[in-house]
Structures are given as C-alpha cells and as structure tokens.
Write a structure and sequence with these properties.
Number of domains: 1
Order of helices and strands: EEEHHHHHHHHE
Largest sheet: 2 strands, antiparallel
Shape: globular
Strand content: 5-15%
Oligomer: single chain
Distance between the termini: 19 Å
Number of strands: 4
Number of helices: 8
Helix content: 55-70%
Radius of gyration: 18 Å
Structural class: mainly alpha
Low-confidence stretches: none
Mean pLDDT: 91
Length: about 180
C-alpha cells in the first residue's frame, strides 16, 4: 500500500530469504529439468540423442545456482551476498546428502568459477547458462561434424535453450518490490 509516497513492504530476514531462495530454486529445478531433458534429447539439431536422464540433475542444479548467485551482488550488499551464498551452500550440502560436505563446497566454488568464465564470454546470463549446459553435458559430442570440429554449439539450439533457461532466473526486481531485507 502506498501512502504519501511510502510503500509498505513485508520484512524478511536474510535467513528467511536464503531458505526461500534455495527452496524455490530447488523446486524450479526439480520441476523444470524434465522439460530441459525433453528439449535436449528430442532436438533435431543433434545427430543422435544425448539421452540425458533425470539422474543427471546435479550438474543442472549447480549451473542454475551458480547463475542465480552470480547476480546477487547486483541487488545486495557484500554482507548480504556472503550470508546468502553461505546459506545457499549449506542448503546444497543438505540436498546432496550423499556427497561429502567438503566435496560439495568445492563443487559450488568450481561451478561458480566455471559459470563466471562462460558469462564473461557471452555477457548474457541465459546464454552463459546454455553454454554451461552444452559444455557440462558434453553436447558437442552429438552435433554434426562441422560444429563438432569447431567445438561450438549450434547457435539456433543455443538460443532456444537460453530462452527456456530464462524461466530459471530469480526475478529480484519483482521480489524486492514486495519485500525488504532486514
């Protein structure tokens, strides 16, 4: 409600935000990964199906988390970013309970570094996500000879995948218009 130019936003702690943020991303990944599998496996731009399986979700989750974490500093102070990052990492450790804690921590850092490299090459979040998936799932192996030899993704496939991946990006503008982090 806006009254005299002031808007009443619901207050949320960083801990509450971290819980909501990670749980929502986990849910979106869990519900959306089958769509990505279907798009990749049935894509006619490949000579043969990459045959991705639902068990291959870990890499996808790590890419989605790295992409979303990459944007945190655009919206929050360094202290809040650090707290969100640490809490997110703890949630990932719990989610990947079969892996050792230190292995998961290293995996988070590795994926964030890997994603930052992809982002620096494309400068667009969705394209960097699509390139990351292309590389991590070795999709080059399923392309035609010309693109395979160039080790470059089919640009049409990459754009279509990037369009799909835009649904996996947290909308901080919308969120922060309704909530104030305290």
């Amino acid at each position: 409600m806006k009254l005299f130019g002031f808007s009443k936003k619901e207050k949320m702690s960083v801990d509450e935000l971290a819980q909501l943020y990670t749980n929502t991303l986990f849910e979106v990944v869990d519900n959306g990964f089958p769509e990505i599998i279907g798009f990749v496996n049935d894509n006619r731009k490949f000579e043969e199906s990459p045959n991705l399986q639902t068990e291959d979700i870990k890499w996808f989750l790590m890419i989605i988390l790295a992409a979303n974490n990459h944007r945190l500093s655009d919206f929050f102070s360094d202290d809040v970013v650090d707290e969100l990052h640490n809490s997110c990492t703890q949630q990932v450790i719990r989610f990947l309970e079969n892996d050792e804690e230190e292995v998961v921590r290293e995996m988070v850092v590795d994926y964030e570094s890997f994603f930052a490299e992809q982002f620096s090459e494309s400068a667009k979040l969705e394209k960097a996500m699509a390139r990351s998936i292309f590389i991590k799932y070795n999709l080059n192996d399923y392309q035609g000879k010309l693109l395979k030899n160039q080790n470059e993704p089919n640009p049409v496939f990459l754009q279509e995948l990037a369009n799909l991946l835009s649904h996996f990006i947290w909308s901080w503008d919308d969120f922060l218009s309704k909530y104030k982090i305290v």
